[in-house]
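Reading a protein record of the kind used here takes little practice once its layout is understood. An example of such a record is reproduced below.
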Amino acid sequence: MTSSEAVVVHYRLHADFAVRFPWLRHALGPRSGLELDADGLRVRLGPWLVSTPLNNIAGAEVSGPYSPLRGLGVRLSLADRGLTFGTTTKGGVCLRFHEPVAGIDPWGLIRHPGLTVTVSEPDLVADAINRVVAQA
């Protein structure tokens, strides 16, 4: 391979939120979930969306379990401005960003250094994200 040839890595990850109640899954809509591909990361929970390019993801780690007051719903941490998209108290994945991202407000005035998402199979999702980020 010459220096002018680019290495193209193809990947696509889609992780659904861990939701116990069918009515809640219906209320969140079919597009809710975490998606990671060559275009970047997109996490949607109902009307809320966080989107960022791959080179802004610093890493991912499994976290939890959470208390019901801290783990359910869309929540802003007053301590560090971190954002949570929570649908279960069992656990999830904490994503860290190099540069804070918009998410909780529609104008992007509040920026978040991290996002916690309660996806199904958090161990696999965190591992996949860390592998992709290491290659990017």
